[in-house]
Prior knowledge:
Blueprint: E1 2-5, H1 13-21, E2 25-28, H2 34-50, H3 60-76, E3 104-109, E4 114-119
Parallel strand pairs: 1-2
Antiparallel strand pairs: 3-4
GO molecular function: nucleic acid binding
Organism: Gimesia aquarii
InterPro entries: Integrase_cat-core, RNaseH-like_sf, RNaseH_sf
Amino acid sequence: MMIMHDRNGKQTKKFTETLQQSRIKTNTLPIVSPNRKGRCERFIETIKLEYWAKFIVFGKQHLDYQICSFTAYYNTLRSHTTHNYQLPIREIPDEVEKLLMGEVQVIAHIGGLIKSFKHIAA
């Protein structure tokens, strides 16, 4: 486990030492890095709103599994407004002129909580 923190006065040397005694690594952000913490906080907010609000976590192993599942979905299937509603990790699809309902496959993720749709190749 790792805790990232900025350089404000809340994380004292004693705080860091206590974490290290508990085998928790710490990573202090560089002096001028305003976007790093914001991006991390935004991802945490997204996972809380879209995922953890609907689940109960039963321990660290279960939490790790949930985070891996959501991260895979987040990076490969979920559209992002900052990427013009495209996926961050994607293959460029072939162009489709007309899509019929029978040609759409519904894929359930994370126990059916989230669904994505895929074109079935002819």
